[in-house]
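Researcher: Please translate sequence to structure tokens.
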Amino acid sequence: MSSPAAAATIDHHHDPSTATGIPNKKLLMWAFLASDCMFFGTLISTHLIYRLHPPPGTPSPREVFDVPLTSFSTFILLMSSLMMALAVNAIQKGNVRSMRFSLLTTAFFGAIFLGCQVFEFNNFVFEKHLTISGSILGSTFFTLTGTHGTHVAIGVLWLCLMYVRSFKAAEPQPGDRPWLSTLLHVGALVLALLLGMKLVLSFVWGFQEHGLSGATAGAVAGAQWAAIAGLLATLVILRWFSRAAAPVQFDQHNAVDVETMGLYWHFVDIVWIVIFTAVYLLEYL
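Model: Translation complete:
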């Protein structure tokens, strides 16, 4: 005979209420990712085909790409996958606090990746004069990497919404306005990520232009002090929102939601590994 504790254990991988044994949310995400595989496969194949037969006047990718910067952003994105896995493991064990920390770290790493991509695009357009309409290389490159960047941005927003959702009170108090609190919480979180991204971009710009000493100086010079002050203020606001005021609805029964989000995030990371290899590294083989 099984004990009551064993009987109450939640199986996060199987759902006996469905015909497939897989939770419907996860099955729907797998179906979406299967279609997204074909979509990205088309974009990557198009880029590779045009690279094999470049028309006259196409710029050399070696003269445009910045592999060290892209390698750094790739490493950051891979570390975000680690934090996403830790978030899934934490919620499966009912550790909501640890899950929140992992979700925030994942979102921050995703924002850093987006910041590096913004810096890269800006450098390509204004310094290397590579535009989406100027050449086949620009058309295929910006379409492919821009689509992936959009997926990362959607994932970061999803992470923010899941983090805020984990604070939803189990029993709202009379007079509470949960919709207003949620809106302000999401706004403060997104603002903190944007300010953090701005500071990272300043550091990257300083490192690219002047080395490590210039990066340190550039990250705290001039208007960057305002960004630092704003980031500290938003962190204080986030701390106020995260105070433990009442029991919350979010627990290990919601693990399937975090797992589904994890599937999406890991897929985005795997796609970037393929893009980084096919678009950047193959040019140096």
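Researcher: Any highlights?
Model: The chain has two domains: 23-52+60-171+247-285, 178-245.
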